[in-house]
Design brief:
Blueprint (H helix, E strand, L loop, with lengths): L16 H10 L12 E14 L4 E13 L11 E7 H14 L27 H19 L8 H8 L4 H7 L2 H4 L3 H10 L5 H49 L6 H16 L1 H57 L9 H9 L4 H81 L2
Antiparallel strand pairs: 1-2, 2-3
Helix pairs in contact: 7-10, 8-9, 8-10, 9-12, 10-12
Length: about 425
């Protein structure tokens, strides 16, 4: 994901090498180098494949990933150009790896598996060519987002995803990233049991929920409006049919009526390319709908780190309290086997008490080390996460400004086209 200065364009159409040069220029960070400064990345040529076995048949889509080194000074990166095929499931594996390996970074989301918020209420085929093309474009944006991030773009697994044709999955699993992932149970426990949650992350969580709600509503309203516009425009096809039939019985008005019918046909058919273009803008908004999950994921990871810190603090406090009680000649108040034995068989001897105190002193030293380490890790985690959240905010503002501006421009063009058609129809009626 790119910051304000290095965000790739959110154009879901296929990005040409010339456009990718523009991406690279815009992706230049102010302090560190990102991959897009010296490499072009494209996802193209989606292809349907089938693996047949004795029991079942697996049909899937693969995408061609091509890279080209544009800076001859960057040596050791496949000496120029590479190309290989990847399935969607491999994109998912890459994303899961990055989420676990970089818990403080907002990982770019993948496109949806099934089309939602479509303007036609019809079942969507996941092998529909138009849907596959839109997914291809979104997968390219996914890679460009990562490649424009100064940290993610340097990851060897990410580079291998684009250039290592065989053995890439083995390389991913050899990192043992799955064992580092926080369990869902721990994440839920941390969320509800934190005593001192950071207010800033609570605000980010609330914002993520509001962002998801607002974009969902926009997409729903857009789909409803698109359905209505589609129906209205297609009704004009009936005008065309009526004018055509009418022209057959009106000799003096035949030509103007036929011409007017033609323009009604043009108006009726103009809605199809417009709504197809609208779908591209909807896909761009869907990316930010999914970004809300990425934001919440970073917050959950913070909660797990904070939860570990508070548990380390509790452990140190418990050990210190137990030590103080022993120094005062009292038994710990918590239930323990040693406490039961003490009540049944009498208190410890001074030598036994001193030994326990000494053992607790060692445990307290270790607990202090663990608490210090947990504190440092939490501080670094918070600092890194908040920095990336700020970067995301700059990117989000820039991207949404671009999306809504281009959407307004598209609507203006469509309105002007409609005015031109109706003006031509008016001229036909004037000639009657």
């Amino acid at each position: 994901m790119a910051d304000e200065e290095n965000s790739p364009e959110l154009n879901p159409e296929k990005i040409t090498p010339e456009q990718n040069d523009v991406h690279a220029d815009r992706a230049k960070p102010t302090t560190k180098m990102s991959l897009l400064q010296w490499m072009e990345i494209t996802v193209s040529e989606p292809e349907k494949r089938t693996n047949a076995s004795m029991k079942m048949q697996d049909t899937y889509i693969v995408y061609l990933i091509e890279t080209r080194v544009t800076d001859e000074n960057m040596k050791g990166y496949s000496d120029g150009a590479t190309s290989l095929w990847r399935r969607y499931s491999e994109f998912e594996l890459l994303k899961n790896y990055l989420e676990t390996t970089y818990p403080t970074i907002i990982i770019p989301p993948l496109p949806e598996k099934k089309a939602t918020y479509t303007w036609q209420n019809a079942p969507t085929d996941k092998f529909d060519p138009e849907f596959i093309e839109r997914r291809r474009a979104a997968l390219e944006v996914f890679l460009l987002r990562i490649a424009s991030h100064t940290i993610l773009s340097t990851d060897k697994i990410f580079m291998g995803f684009m250039q290592q044709d065989s053995g890439w999955k083995d390389a991913v699993y050899s990192t043992d990233f799955q064992s580092k992932a926080e369990s869902k149970l721990k994440a839920i426990s941390a969320s509800f049991r934190l005593r001192k949650p950071d207010r800033r992350f609570e605000e980010v969580k609330n914002y993520a929920n509001e962002l998801q709600t607002n974009i969902s509503n926009i997409l729903k309203y857009r789909a409803r409006m698109a359905d209505k516009l589609y129906a209205i425009h297609k009704v004009h096809g009936n005008y065309a049919r009526v004018f055509g039939e009418w022209s057959c019985i009106e000799k003096d008005m035949s030509e103007p009526l036929q011409s007017a019918g033609h323009y009604m046909d043009v108006l009726a058919s103009s809605i199809d390319p417009m709504l197809e273009e609208e779908e591209h803008f909807a896909d761009q908004l869907k990316e930010y709908l999914a970004f809300s999950d990425s934001l919440r994921s970073v917050c959950r990871k913070y909660e797990c780190v904070q939860y570990d810190l508070e548990r380390a603090d509790d452990n140190l406090s418990a050990k210190a309290k137990e030590r103080d009680l022993l120094v005062q000649g009292k038994s710990p108040g918590t239930f323990s086997l040693s406490g039961v034995k003490s009540k049944l068989f009498g208190s410890d001897t001074p030598e036994q008490r001193e030994l326990k105190i000494k053992q607790l002193e060692e445990q307290i030293k270790q607990a202090e080390i663990e608490l210090k380490q947990a504190t440092q890790e939490t501080q670094l985690h918070v600092q890194s996460a908040l920095k990336d959240i700020e970067r995301f905010k700059r990117q989000k503002t820039k991207d949404l400004q671009e999306i809504f501006t281009n959407y307004a421009i598209m609507q203006i063009k469509q309105c002007k086209k409609g005015i031109a058609i109706w003006t031509s129809a008016k001229d036909c009626f004037v000639k009657m």
